[in-house]
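Justification of resources, computational component.

The compute hours requested in this renewal are based largely on the per-chain cost of generating structure records like the one below. Each record pairs the submitted sequence with a full structure-token output. That output is archived, and it is also reused by downstream analysis tasks.
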Amino acid sequence: MTTEGARVFREAWIAGVRKHFPGEPKPGYVTPWEQTPDWEREAAGAVYEQVRQLLELSGGHASRLSREQKSRFVATSWTAQMFKHFEDPKPGYVADWPDLPDWQRETDSDIFEAVENSLE
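The structure output for this chain reads:
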């Protein structure tokens, strides 16, 4: 896992939250990288790597996925990390994609696209 990839993920998350969250987001949603907990940095890096690998293994054609498909991939990858890092994660941490709020779905799409852009 590269710190650079994890930071791309985190910065895209913060930008997405600021763009899509209705109202004022919880402070934890926009915590700067330097104050992000180690488990969250590790999870961000792992999801970045999964998106990077999907793009690589598809010969770059995964960029043709719809925004919904991109969002679902990021959300599912994140959920797997929550099960890795927490014995009994909060239900909101492992909610299925249809149960996520719209702002989170949009942010997850933005994260996928930020990973794409970081590879160009």
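Residues 47 and 78 are 6 Å apart (CA to CA). The chain has a mean pLDDT of 95.
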